[in-house]
Structures are given as structure tokens and as C-alpha cells.
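Quick log. Single chain, no ligands specified.
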Amino acid sequence: MDIETITRYIARATIRTIVFVRDDDRALVDPTSIFITWTDPNDLKVVDQENIISSGRLSQGVYEHYYRTTISSPKGHWRGLAEIIDGSGPTAVNSPVSFSVEVA
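-> predicted structure:
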């Protein structure tokens, strides 16, 4: 069964982001942190590095984040960034993943 990827939302919709974290063997794993950032079409960060490691965990290696737009939310392409960090200090691995949606 295919999973539909929604990339267009109307204002007042809730945008759901799902992050899957896998190791080199493609097994789902839990990282140290996952930071979500949303930037609107006016280049304003509306969510700036919210750590979803505890609040968004669904199961091992699967995390979700919700952002609710409003009727006054800027229309156009919104940019999302999920920064997945495993470890700490100089040996930490940072894996950024960019994505975007349209708010109409």
C-alpha cells in the first residue's frame, strides 16, 4: 500500500511531519536529538529548532511533529528542516533533512 505524501495545505490546516531515523543497516534507531525548524515564505522562522525527541516519539526511530497554520499564515512555499543528531561533542553526527510544503 502506498502512503500519500501531502505537500499542499490550506491555511488553518495542521501540517504533520513524520521523521524516520535509520542506521546504516536500515534499522530504525533512536537518535540523541531531532530538531524541527519551519520557515514561512517571508523567511521568518515560525518554529526554530524545537526538539521532538521526547514529545514526538511514536516508536523506535519514528517521530512526528505538528504545526498548525492559521487563516493569516503567509501563503506560498514553507521550508522545513529536520536536524537529526546522534551522539554529543566533536563525535556527534548531524544529519539535516530539508523538505517543503505549500500553504494556499
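The mean pLDDT is 92.
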